[in-house]
Design a protein that fits this description.
Helix content is 23%, strand content 37%. By secondary structure, it is an alpha+beta fold. A 5-stranded antiparallel beta sheet has the order 4-3-2-1-5, covered by helices on one side. The radius of gyration is 16 Å and the shape is globular.
Length: 91
Amino acid sequence: MRLMEALHLRRKTRPLMTESWLQDPSGSWTMHFYRDPASWTKYPWYYIDRGRYRSGKDLLLKSRKYMARFDAVQLWKDLRKDGWKKVEAQW
């Protein structure tokens, strides 16, 4: 067995995150992480939208980022360490 095949068999595989929501500790901003369906399964890319509700019903989408899965997961982990909480879908 070749070395690369052996390393591949040892690596644990996890299901890819398709969607996740985080809210900042104050509850005013929400981030929506979701997979780009047009990206390759082997190298997925993610959209990250940041927004909040104004006046009870208006949604303000403040920013959108597009990044590779590794970077999106790292951002998600950093936000969790900073106190952001997992929440249900917000919009």
